[in-house]
Amino acid sequence: MTPAQLSRTVLHAVRRAAAEGELGAARGSSDLPQRVTVESPPRRGPGDYAVSVAFRLAGPSGMAPYDVARVLLARLVRQDGILAAEIAGGGFLNVTLDDRARAELVAELSRPAGSAPGSPDRDTAAADTPAADTPAADIAHWSAATGDAPAALAVRTAQASPLFRVQYAHARARAYSRNARDLGFRGEPHASADVGPEPETGTEPETGTEPDTRPGQDARAVYGSRGAALLALLADHRRVSEQSDPAGHARHLVAVGDAFFDFHDQCPPLPRGDEKPGAVHRARLALVEATGTVLAGGLTQLGVSAPAHL
Question: DALR anticodon binding domain spans which residues (predicted)?
Answer without folding.
Answer: 166-310
